[in-house]
Specification:
This protein is of the alpha+beta class and 158 residues long. The chain has a single domain, classed as Alpha-D-Glucose-1,6-Bisphosphate, Chain A, domain 4 (2-Layer Sandwich), CATH 3.30.530. The protein is 35% helix and 41% strand. The protein is built from three helices and seven strands; from the N terminus they run βααββββββα. The protein has helices spanning 14-21, 24-30, 118-157, and strands at 3-10, 37-41, 52-59, 62-74, 78-85, 90-101, 104-114. A hairpin with a 4-residue loop joins strand 5 and strand 6 (90-101). Helix 2 (24-30) crosses helix 3. The longest helix is centred in the last third of the chain and has 40 residues, at 118-157.
Length: 158
Amino acid sequence: MPVIRSELVIDAPQQLCFDAARSIDLHMESTSRTGEKAIDGVTSGWIELGESVTWEAVHFGIKQRLTAKITEMESPRYFVDEMVSGAFKRFRHQHEFIPVGKNQTRMLDTFDYSSPLGFLGKMADRLFLEAYMTRFLLERNLYLKQAAEEQFGRMQEK
């Protein structure tokens, strides 16, 4: 059961970072490399507690669908999405936002998952899946950081 953690400091207020992370539209932009798109449930705007989204994307050359539901949320501090159906055996993805300065936020991202297929899934984790997911999540988080900082910059200019 790998657990992938990342931490970034974003030069933007907590609420803006929280909203960026739960934006379906920003999620699709940040994962354009895999063609990820929301096809059911909440398909644009901000996702809220109790809502779900079904994503379709191509990973490892295979078109896949995954449905996740927001199971916990305390705005603007954190939210959790968990897999309802998809390629993993299970996952729990926690997003935390901690103010560290007047307009700075520490974003903590914890992705805790289990692969299917028992021993074969564990081998896939060691050989490639954990590294792939680590890169995928970091790329997404760096995109969110850039988007939040750019939006905050535009707000400051007004």
